[in-house]
Amino acid sequence: MSKDEIKCSLKGEALLANPRLNKDTAFTEEERIKYELTSRLPPVVETLQEQIDRAYEQYKSFGDRVLEKNFYLSQLSIRNQTLFYALISQHLVEMIPIIYTPTEGDAIMQFSDVYRYPEGCFLDIDHKDPQYIKNQLSAFGTKDSIKYIILTDSEGILGIGDQGVGGVLISVAKGHLMTLCAGLDPNCFLPIVLDVGTDNQKHRSNPQYMGLKRDRVRGEEYDQYLSTVLRSIREVFPHAFIHFEDFGLKNAKRILDEYTKEFACFNDDIQGTGAVALAAIVAALQVTKSPLTEQRIMIFGAGTAGIGIANQITSALVGDGLSKQQAIDHIYLVDRYGLLLEKHADVATEDQKPFLKKNDSFQDINGDVDLETAISRVKPTILLGCSGQPGKFTERAMREMAKHVEQPIIFPISNPTKLMEAKPDQINEWTNGKALMATGSPLPPIKRNGKEYIISQCNNALLYPALGVGCVLSGCKFLTDTMMKAASDALATVPKNLFKSEEALLPDLNNAREISRHITLAVLKQARKENMSTTEFPTDDKELSEWILKHEWNPTYKKFV
Ligand SMILES: NC(=O)c1ccc[n+]([C@@H]2O[C@H](COP(=O)([O-])OP(=O)(O)OC[C@H]3O[C@@H](n4cnc5c(N)ncnc54)[C@H](O)[C@@H]3O)[C@@H](O)[C@H]2O)c1
Ligand SMILES: O=C(O)C[C@H](O)C(=O)O
Ligand SMILES: [Mg+2]
C-alpha cells in the first residue's frame, strides 16, 4: 500500500463516524455508491480546500471566544482527521494558541464540565491488573501500529498543577503538534492519562468531575502501578517511544532517571524545555556577542523545567571546556526560599542540591535572599522564569537586572500566558527596551517609542515533535544526552530564512515542518553514530533529508483500498 492509499473496510454510518477514514462531502460519486453513503451526504462533492474554507469561516465565527474555538477544532478532530490537520496546517500560528497553550489549559481545567466525547486512553489505578491494562491498550492498535505514546499522570499540567483526569487533553494536544509540526502519522500515536487520583479539591468537590475521587496515590503503590503500565506498554507496543509529560515535581526527574536506560523515553518538561531554552540562550548570546562561559545565569523556579534547563546549560558549559563544578558556578537557582544557598540543604530537592551556593556573600542578610537582592548581588546576565508564579519579576527586580547588564536576557517561560512571571511589555518598559525576551506562550511583538520588539516563543514545541519523529524513524533503543544535545544544537543552527525577522531568537513556528526536518536529521545522524538506531536510512545528508520528507504524514484524502 502506498502513502496515498488507506485500507477501508467500513461502510455507511460507520465510515462517516470514523475520523481516520471520513471524507465527508469530499467522497466522490463512485465512493458514495461503493460505500453506501449516497443518501447520507448532501449532493455536492467538495474538494478538501472547499471544506477547509467553510470550516475556517465557522471557526472565525466564534470571534474572541477562544475556548469555543478550541471545542470546535477538537470536535472536528474526532469527526474528520484529515480536515482537522489540513485546516490547522493552513493557519498554524493562528490556531496553535487555541489547540495548545494557553487555551488548552482552560480546556483541561474545565474538562469534566464541558466534556462531550472521549479522546485518548484512560488508565486508572483502581485497575492495576497487568492483563487488564494490556487488554485496554490492545484496543488502540496492533503491535506495530503504535510508535509514539504521550503519557501524563496530570500532576503538573503546564503551570496549573494537578488536573486529574482532564490532563488527558495535554497528551492529546501535544500529539496534535507532533503531526502538525513534524509530520508524525497521527494513527501511530497514542495519548494516555494515568488517573491516580487527584489532590485538586476543586475537582474533587465538583459533582461533574469524571476522574477517580480519591487522594492522589503516591509512594510504593504509585511506583508499582507506573512500572506495570510501562511494562504493559512494552509488551503490547514494543516499538513505541514513550514521552512523559507534565508529571509532578517529585516524580518527573525521578521517573526519567529510573527508566531512561530501560525504555526509549523522554521527559519533555525536563529535556525538551532544557534544550529549547539553551537554543534560545545561544541565539541571544549571538546578539549580545558574549560567550556562554561569561554568563551568570539565574533560574527562578527550580522545579522540573528549571532543573532541566540548569542541567542542559551545565552540559553545554562542560562542552565548552569547563569542569562540572566550574559550570555549576555559573548557575544560580531561586526558588520559594529565595536564592538557594547551602543553608537550604535540608529543604532543597536532590536535583537542586548541586547548585546550592556558599552562604558567604550573603552573610549580612537574615532570612532568605529575595529575587531583587539576589539580582543586585549576583548581577545575572540571564534570567529565566519557570515558576508558574505571575508577577514575580517585579519592576524593582527588572530595573535591577538592567542596571548591571547592557542587554539582559530575560525569559519568563511559564505557561499559560497568565502565569508568566511578568508581561513582556512591562519588562520592556522597566529595562528601558534593553531586554532580549522570549516567553513560553506566543505573544505579538511589542511596540514602544516607535520601535518594534519581537517576543520569541521559547516552548518545547519547537523541539519535541522533531525529536520524537527522529526517535520513531530511527527506532531508537534509548534516547541519549548526546542525541538531546544534537537536537538542541540543530535548533540553535536552524537556517536564518526560517526566522520571522533578524531580531527573533527562535525560528518561526510558521516554518515548523522545515525546522523539524533540520532537527530530525540531526537526531537520526546522532542515533546512528551512537549505534542507537535500529533502522536503515541513507548516509548522505541530502538523501536523508528526502527520506525524512517522504516519511512525513500529510493531511490529504487517501484512496481507499
Ligand atoms: N515554555 C516551555 O516550554 C515550558 C516547559 C515546561 C514548563 N514550562 C512552565 O514552567 C512552569 C513550571 O513548570 P514545572 O513543570 O517546572 O513545575 P514544577 O512544579 O516542577 O516547578 C515549579 C518550581 O517553581 C517553584 N516555585 C513555586 N513558587 C515559587 C515562588 N514564589 N518563587 C520561586 N519559586 C517558586 C517551585 O518550588 C518549583 O520548584 C509552568 O508554568 C510550566 O508551564 C514551560
Ligand atoms: O505545554 C507547553 O506549552 C509547554 C510545557 O510542556 C509546559 O508544561 O508548559
Ligand atoms: Mg509540559
UniProtKB/TrEMBL annotation:
GO terms for molecular function: malate dehydrogenase (decarboxylating) (NAD+) activity; metal ion binding; NAD binding. Residues 77-260 form the Malic enzyme N-terminal domain. The active site is at Y100 (proton donor), K174 (proton acceptor). CDD domains: NAD_bind_1_malic_enz (cd05312). Gene3D superfamilies: Malic enzyme, N-terminal domain, NAD(P)-binding Rossmann-like Domain. Its cofactor is Mn(2+); Mg(2+). GO terms for cellular component: cytosol; mitochondrion. Signal peptide: none annotated. Residues 270-528 form the Malic enzyme NAD-binding domain. (S)-malate binds at N415, N459. Keywords: Metal-binding, NAD, Oxidoreductase. Divalent metal cations. Prefers magnesium or manganese. GO terms for biological process: malate metabolic process. It holds the Pfam family Malic_M. A divalent metal cation binds at E245, D246, D269. PANTHER family: MALIC ENZYME-RELATED, NAD-DEPENDENT MALIC ENZYME, MITOCHONDRIAL. This is Malic enzyme.
